Automatic annotation (TrEMBL), chain A:
Protein's name in the database: Urea ABC transporter permease subunit UrtB
Matches recorded under InterPro entries: ABC_transp_permease, ABC_UrtB_bac, ARM-type_fold, BCAA_transport_permease
Primary location: membrane
Family in the record: Belongs to the binding-protein-dependent transport system permease family. LivHM subfamily.
Keyword Transport (UniProt): yes
Organism of derivation: Marinomonas colpomeniae
Transmembrane segments annotated in the record for this chain: 245-272, 304-324, 336-354, 384-401, 468-492, 498-517
Lineage: Bacteria, Pseudomonadati, Pseudomonadota, Gammaproteobacteria, Oceanospirillales
TrEMBL record, chain B:
Source lineage: Bacteria, Pseudomonadati, Pseudomonadota, Gammaproteobacteria, Oceanospirillales
Transmembrane segments: 21-39, 45-64, 71-93, 134-157, 164-182, 212-229, 261-281, 301-324, 336-353
Protein name from the UniProt record: Urea ABC transporter permease subunit UrtC
Pfam families referenced in this protein's UniProt entry, alphabetically: BPD_transp_2
Membrane disposition: Multi-pass membrane protein
Family annotation (NCBIfam families): urea_trans_UrtC (TIGR03408)
Localization per Swiss-Prot or TrEMBL: Cell inner membrane
Domain of life: Bacteria
Alphabetical keyword list: Cell membrane, Membrane, Transmembrane, Transmembrane helix
PANTHER family named in the record: HIGH-AFFINITY BRANCHED-CHAIN AMINO ACID TRANSPORT SYSTEM PERMEASE, SLR1201 PROTEIN
Length: 533, 377
């Protein structure tokens, strides 16, 4: 939100600058007057400026309030002094463009005193509170919450009845209640009502105010404040829990995406593919390449990247199956070693082509940002999309396996290869397609992961062990088990993290799975019947 | 002489190479050591101390490969976590060497190693106690991997976790340890590990004589472990192990407690890996969590696969050859090494399932019928 304000200020600054440059308006003369004015004469000039310029004058007021307003001795134009990486630079007040070749000798400070500062604070508040956009007004109120005084309260009180926007009105009401709760000269019953109102808010400033009230002389107030605080803490805890749950679900969705392809190749085909992580990596790099090809259409690049990644990784999977895995049928340990070799080759290949450094994949604008539900809970949009995406992919996969003829063949081959062959199923073809499907889905996972983590040659390695754990934990050959395992491991990790730290949480989860597999070697949902052996 | 050969080969035809191999190994070691110590540095036959250390490192790897081969080649248990046992042995030695530094560290603290002073620790953690005694540290180098292997193996084999599952579990084990040892709070030096060693049992680690002695001890221990393993695997115990590899259910139905055989073999193998780690650290001068990384453990498997599994000699030869290739490759074309390693994984599993020893046996088999035909004619 703060960025938004800054942005607006910049915009307005720019606007006013263009006005300022185009015509020598009354503002121009006012500004020149300001340069020469004595301290006591400054207030009327500033008032005039505020009245004529409105929001456009905010940057000037802010700089002046900070005591950073200077004028250039030569042409009497105003500049602000800024500190950029330890260097003092002077920028035009409105356009924020650096004025070059200015040293401390060329400028003179415009002085302010406490009276002026008080006036400026009020003026800034007033201008913001009467701004056109409701978002700006709301953020202005929220900003004021931490520094309420008599003047601002009077201002808010005056504006409150006419405020049309519900959210702004609510925030203003909150500010009034906060002030009322702290004013000692008010009747205690009124203060109690105000405290009661405060207990429904989650703002940090409200909590600070209530904490201060705990030291109040009136025991009734202290009691009400402590109750309100407890109320707020409870609600905040509930939202913190939801927040944690969301992060757990998000990690779960990543695990699901990473392991679901493995659930097919390992679970359904029984082929252990150590190069699975590299299929994910290839998908991520495909996203990178797609964005390189269409740099002006980043927002749409994802829609190109998803099928492209599926094709690239899927074709690579078919290639691996045809060239290597086919010859190692029925020798799982050898398959493991050979595919591990392939993973090394793929990693080195990417390192040679794209350099060993991480590549930057940009996030489409519609995926960035977050969904702010209240002051303590905001969900990042990209994680939300990836969660939905993971579920979609899962559902699509289940449909493919249950409803299509390819799925039927895959299941037939996985249950009884020789019988399927006898019935005329082309097992070779089915093997290649299954492996291609599993690898292709890994590629899609890579597209999603490229939005969350760095894209580098080691991207796949980071997920391979976790993916295997998920598949083994859920029960091999069981897609639903993979889903449950991915989300439960994700949530468990995120709930452990605050108490144990990220690394220890990962270790605990790993050790838990190792022990769990000892107890139930076939996972959470073991396959039943003859196919299991 | 024939009796000696028979004792070494333990009455098995496959063991007939044992004595010659041991003789060759020890002779080479003696020659290399003598060439380092007694020849002048400008002589054509002089072996530099760097080469001696490199050879010592190869022999440690060979010992490790021996450990992997014992369980993979003879019992069919593909462990992707033997690097963990190796590293634990190495850490035990590293802790001893760390204590030997005494007050010669950067901070000059007589009790605490540098990294603990840096972390502002006030006293030695309990697991560092006793590590200043060489015998105790060496005991730990053997016992800690052994106990870990016992607990893990006991849990895994009793619940009949086999095949690929077990491989992935072992990989997860070493991965978990990797994460754990990266933590500073663990008290093992975190990311940097243990290094800057000064001396072992009072001998300067940088001195040529110490390096050569370590190299000779490694070779001798490798020979001893090789012969002992050969004996164990040709004993009754070893025959049961082979039976378990080939038909586990059948062995179980006959009445063998297959899980117990597997656990003890696993522990034995882990102990060898621990010894290898303990010998490795003073020669390379550092131990850090990188040794736990899954890729290291999986590399060990390829040494054995290249040499030929289930042959012991093959494992040793494979480890030395692959590591020699690695040294040469990384010096000439660093980027190409991973390509070569990856290709080795694929090609060996596809075309050389029995490794170099299998190739050798094939060639011998081709020559022999020709010979017998000749003698008949």
């Amino acid at each position: 939100m703060r960025h938004l304000i800054a942005l607006c200020c910049c915009l307005f600054g720019l606007l006013s600058f263009s006005v300022y440059a185009a015509e020598s308006s009354p503002q121009d003369s006012l500004l020149t007057e300001l340069v020469g004015a004595k301290l006591k004469n400054m207030t009327p000039i500033l008032e005039k400026l505020a009245n004529t310029q409105g929001e456009a004058i905010l940057p000037l007021f802010r700089i002046l309030l900070g005591g950073d307003l200077y004028y250039i001795k030569a042409d009497k134009s105003l500049v602000g002094q800024f500190d950029e990486q330890g260097n003092t630079v002077y920028k035009d007040v409105f356009s924020q463009v650096v004025v070059p070749n200015l040293s401390k000798k060329d400028v003179k400070k415009i002085r302010v005193n406490n009276t002026l500062r008080g006036y400026l604070r009020n003026a800034i508040a007033q201008i913001q509170l009467t701004a056109k956009s409701p978002e700006l007004r709301q953020s202005a109120v929220r900003e004021l919450l931490s520094k309420l005084d008599k003047d601002t309260i009077n201002l808010i009180e005056a504006l409150y009845p006419n405020e049309a926007n519900k959210k702004v009105k609510e925030a203003m009401g909150l500010a009034l209640s906060m002030y009322a709760a702290t004013s000692i000269d008010l009747v205690p019953s009124n203060r109690l009502v105000a405290i009661e109102r405060l207990s429904t808010s989650l703002e940090g400033d409200v909590r600070n105010t209530l904490t201060k009230l705990m030291k109040d002389e009136n025991p009734a107030i202290v009691k009400a404040a402590s109750e309100a605080l407890e109320n707020i803490a409870q609600r905040a805890n509930r939202f913190a829990f939801i927040d944690q749950l969301f992060f757990g679900l998000s990690l779960g969705s990543v695990l699901l995406l990473a392991s679901i392809g493995l659930a097919i190749t390992f679970g359904v085909m029984g082929v252990i593919n150590m190069a699975h992580g590299e299929m994910i990596m290839l998908g991520a790099y495909t996203t990178y390449v797609v964005q390189l090809i269409m740099p002006n259409y980043i927002d749409y690049s994802i829609w190109v990247a998803i099928p492209a990644a599926f094709l690239v990784s899927g074709l690579m999977g078919v290639l691996i199956e045809r060239l290597v895995i086919r010859h190692l049928h029925g020798r799982p340990l050898e398959t493991l070693l050979a595919t591990f070799g392939i993973s090394l080759i793929l990693q080195q290949l990417v390192r040679t082509i794209f350099s060993p450094l991480n590549r930057q994949v940009s996030t489409p604008s519609w995926m960035s940002g977050s969904w702010e539900i209240n002051p303590v809970l905001s969900l990042t949009l990209n994680r939300l999309y990836i969660l939905a995406f993971a579920l979609l992919v899962f559902i699509a996969l289940v449909i493919i396996l249950k409803k299509t003829s390819l799925g039927l063949n895959v299941r037939a081959v996985s249950q009884n290869r020789s019988m399927a062959k006898a019935m005329g199923v082309k097992t070779n073809w089915v093997d290649a397609m299954t492996f291609g499907l599993g690898s292709g889905i890994a590629g899609i996972a890579g597209v999603a992961l490229s939005q969350l983590t760095n894209v580098g040659p080691n991207l796949g390695q980071a997920y391979i062990i976790d993916s295997f754990m998920v598949v083994v934990f859920g029960g091999v050959g069981n897609l639903l088990g993979t889903l449950v395992a991915a989300f439960s491991l994700g949530i468990a990790t995120k709930f452990l993290e605050p108490t144990t730290g990220a690394v220890l949480a990962a270790i605990i989860v790993l050790v838990f799975i190792i022990l769990f597999i000892q107890k139930r070697p076939k996972g959470l949902f073991p396959q039943k019947g003859r196919a299991a052996e | 002489m024939t009796r000696l050969t028979e004792w070494f080969s333990a009455g098995r035809s496959s063991g007939k190479h044992t004595l010659p191999f041991v003789v060759i190994l020890l002779t080479m070691t003696l020659l290399a050591s003598a060439a380092n110590l007694f020849l002048p540095a400008d002589s054509a036959l002089y072996v530099s101390t760097y080469t001696i250390t490199l050879l010592g490192k190869y022999l440690c790897y060979a010992m490790l490969a021996l450990a992997v081969d014992i369980i993979w080649g003879y019992c069919g248990i593909l462990s992707l976590g033997h690097g963990a046992f190796f590293a634990l042995g190495g850490y035990a030695m590293g802790m001893y060497l760390m204590r030997q530094i005494g007050d010669r560290g950067v901070y000059g603290n007589p009790l605490l190693p540098d990294f603990m002073v840096f972390l502002d620790w006030k006293e030695l953690p309990w697991f560092w106690l006793g590590m200043d005694h060489f015998w105790f540290a060496m005991l730990m180098a053997v016992v800690v991997p052994g106990i870990l292997a016992f607990v893990f193996g006991w849990l895994a084999f009793r619940s009949r976790v086999t095949g690929v599952y077990l491989s992935i579990m072992t990989q997860a084990l070493t991965y978990a340890l990797l994460l754990a040892f990266f933590r500073n709070e663990m008290g093992f030096g975190g990311n940097n590990g243990l290094t800057d060693f000064k001396e072992i049992l009072g001998f300067d680690l940088q001195a040529d004589s110490t390096r050569v002695s370590l190299f000779m001890i490694t070779a001798l221990l490798l020979a001893v472990l090789f012969v002992v393993s050969q004996r164990i695997l040709s004993s009754r115990f070893g025959k049961v192990v082979l039976a378990i590899r080939d038909a586990e259910s059948r062995s179980r139905f006959i009445g063998y407690r297959t899980d117990r055989y597997k656990v003890w073999l696993f522990v034995y193998s882990a102990v060898i890996a621990g010894i290898a780690g303990a010998l490795y650290v003073p020669q390379v001068g550092i131990i850090n969590p990188g040794e736990f990384s899954p890729i290291n453990s999986i590399e060990m498997v390829i040494w054995v696969a290249v040499g030929g599994r289930g042959t012991l000699i093959g494992a040793i030869i494979g480890a030395i050859l692959v590591n020699y290739a690695k040294t040469r490759f990384t010096a000439i074309m660093p980027d190409a090494w991973l390509f070569a390693l990856g290709a080795m994984f694929v090609l060996v599993t596809l075309y050389l399932p029995k490794g170099l020893m299998g190739l050798y046996a094939q060639m011998m088999a081709k020559r022999r019928p020709a010979k017998t035909q000749e003698s008949e004619a």
